[in-house]
Design goal:
Blueprint lengths: L1 E3 L4 H8 L3 H5 L3 H20 L3 H7 L8 E4 L3 H10 L13 H6 L21
Length: about 120
């Protein structure tokens, strides 16, 4: 089962009465809310470090979960604390060249949340 620990657009949209489909896209609508979504997500994590992890696994029924978007060490730590005998971390890395060939481009501000585990090695 594929899971994502990052800010849940469904939860953000319901708390802020926004267009859910537009928040899932990569257009200007999402970009206009990006900074607030990041602030909101950080506030939620300060209140409850497992908030987004619990949302990600809430409906998980499969015996194996692949969490492919875990950007913060605090999320990894929460998962390891909650599932100490079942949590295996695998880090997949790609060179800047490979990432560029796949269409990735660093954009200041837009990629601000995508660097949380860059310096972490396990």
């Amino acid at each position: 089962m594929h899971l994502n620990v990052e800010v849940n657009p469904l939860k953000y949209h319901s708390d802020h009465n926004l267009d859910y489909e537009e928040l899932l896209g990569c257009g200007q609508y999402k970009e206009s809310y990006r900074a607030d979504m990041i602030r909101w997500g950080e506030m939620k994590r300060r209140q409850d470090s497992g908030f987004f992890c619990r949302l990600a696994i809430k409906h998980a029924t499969q015996p194996i979960w692949i969490i492919s978007d875990c950007r913060r060490m605090s999320d990894v730590q929460w998962l390891q604390d909650e599932f100490p005998d079942r949590c295996v971390c695998v880090r997949v890395e790609a060179s800047e060249q490979t990432r560029s060939q796949r269409g990735w481009r660093f954009t200041t501000g837009k990629n601000a949340t995508r660097v949380g585990l860059v310096t972490q090695r396990q």
